[in-house]
Amino acid sequence: MDLYEHQARQLFAEHGVLVPRAEIADSPGVARDIARELGGRVVVKAQVRTGGRGRAGGVRLAEDPDAAERVAREILGMTIGGHPVRTVMLAQPVDIESEFYVSYVLDRAAGRFLAIASAEGGTEIEEVAAARPEAVARVPVDPAEGVTEEKAAEIVRAAGLPPRTAGVLARLWQVLTREDALLVEVNPLVRTTGGQLVALDGKVSLDDNALFRHARWSGRETPHDDPLEAAAAARGLTYVRLDGEVGVIGNGAGLVMSTLDVVAGSGARPADFLDIGGGASARVMSDGLSVVLSDPGVRSVLVNVFGGITACDTVAEGIVAALDTVRPAKPIVVRLDGNNAARGRAVLTDRAHPLVHQAATMDEAARLAAELAHTS
């Protein structure tokens, strides 16, 4: 279950992470009243579970309550990345000295969590990784060990973050573990001119299998705004729709994140994040390909699988099954490596579908997918 930003901020605050005061509005009039309560000058933010809100005009500064009412009227009813805006959050602005990126994400393939951090926050992390890969630190976290003082200090050093950030990292780890989350992300985490560390934005994805332990979420209806995300959720897939042209499918959050970075570095934009998991069957692979190919913005698809629990021949069989049911009109690039990779490649070679291309490495696959997206 993906939470809205205001819900993620609620969890941050409960675990000791500072967030600006904010309230939710579903109408321009309510937005005006909230702005007045918050001191007049506010940031109005569309509440949708997707990225790219700022570029789409869904995050704007309002100087007074009348401006807040006008901005809310313009944002409410927008569609951002296929998500309709039904509510806005009005937050007190802060004076920013510097911005950082921090997150924890489940790496299914490796059986651990991955801390991703950068001293260059405030923009899409994929863009930072593409332009300056050395600026993004990736530190494995053993779930049995957790984020100790030593581990937090390691993450801080690797990313070049201020030493005091270690305390925030420890509290965000509490959010992840105590709330049974699969993803916890803050972008940006800012240092204010007054020296405080404040989370200005947040993303949290909860494990649906653990919702019985969290009655406040399991009893609350949080439907997917995007029909493709709803379709993916109905199939048990971890899918987030983005606004690019290369559909990305992989097994394991760490591998998918790396694939997004490589696609961005090849001159294309990822259209989604889809993790088929560590033990995906042929049916799961077929379902994932069906969802990605249903996105009208996708011009090519990159399937990047490292076989471990998931055998590559099983993945290949799922791709073949999808070809017979979905009947794709877009090129698909497949990179298979690891467990039964040779068998998987043979399955695809025998099928000989004209739209399926194979690549030996992730870099080669990303370049080909980007090229096909620009020419198809």
Provide the fold topology.
Blueprint lengths: L4 H10 L7 E4 L2 H10 L4 E5 L12 E4 L2 H11 L3 E2 L2 E2 L3 E4 L4 E12 L4 E7 L6 H7 L4 E6 L7 H11 L5 H14 L2 E12 L4 E3 L3 E4 L8 H4 L8 H8 L3 E4 L4 E5 L2 H13 L6 E4 L6 H12 L6 E8 L4 H15 L5 E7 L2 H11 L4 E3 L3 H14 L1
Parallel strand pairs: 14-15, 14-16, 16-17, 17-18
Antiparallel strand pairs: 1-6, 2-3, 2-6, 4-5, 7-8, 7-10, 8-9, 10-11, 10-12, 13-15
Helix pairs in contact: 2-3, 4-9, 5-6, 8-10, 10-11, 11-12
Could you characterize the architecture of this molecule?
With about 375 residues, the chain is α+β, with helices and mostly antiparallel strands. It folds into 3 domains: about 20-90, ATP-grasp fold, A domain (Dna Ligase, domain 1); about 95-215, D-amino Acid Aminotransferase, Chain A, domain 1, CATH 3.30.470; about 225-375, Succinyl-CoA synthetase domains (Rossmann fold, 3-Layer(aba) Sandwich), CATH 3.40.50.261. The protein has 13 helices and 18 strands. It has helices at about 5-15, 30-35, 65-75, 125-130, 150-160, 165-180, 215-220, 225-235, 255-265, 280-295, 310-325, 340-350, 360-375, and strands at about 20-25, 40-45, 60, 80, 85, 90, 95-105, 110-120, 135-140, 180-190, 195-200, 205, 240, 245-250, 270-275, 300-305, 330-340, 355-360. Strands 7, 8, 9, 10, 11 and 12 form a 6-stranded antiparallel sheet that branches. It has a 6-stranded mixed sheet with strand order 13-15-14-16-17-18, sandwiched between helices. Strands 1-6-2-3 form a 4-stranded antiparallel sheet, covered by helices on one side. β17 (about 330-340), α12 (about 340-350) and β18 (about 355-360) form a beta-alpha-beta unit. It is globular. The protein starts with a helix and ends with a helix. About 50% of the residues are buried. The mean pLDDT is about 90.
